[in-house]
Design goal:
Elements lengths: L5 H29 L4 E15 L5 E13 L2 E5 L12 H10 L5 E6 L7 E2 L6 H23 L2
Antiparallel strand pairs: 1-2, 1-4, 2-3, 4-5
Helix pairs in contact: 1-3
Amino acid sequence: MNKNLEPLILIIFYLVAYGGLIKSLFELYVNALAKKWPQVEVTILNSDIEEQQQSNESSSYVVNVHYSYQYKGHNYRSKRIAFGYWSNQLLKAALVLMRKFEKGKIVKAYINPKKPRISVLIAGVRYFHLLNTGFFIAMALFIHYVTSKSQ
């Protein structure tokens, strides 16, 4: 490999690892705060599962949910399930989540009282927050390990 490119590639890996770690910690923190937000009833407008093909021929499944609600006399729409929610590797887990939010259901959501356009259906620290954070910590540790061995 070109020696001039090595520092650039290393910087890119560091940015991805630490940027992802900061983002996942922020999402974990905000979703934990959302547990204290007021709850309102929301109507599920539609929900589905989107299969996404991975490069290694496996699939992940994204649950898409659209819902509407009223807060202090104003109407809102959202699609956020939780801060930091990306996808499920298991179809069964995605189906379980989608059944909770089937079209026409009325469920509770947590509403940010200062910015009511911001809402989540699932609040608190969840397994996907820990997986996301763990992934980026592992990535950062791996980069440190590889760079310390090459010096």
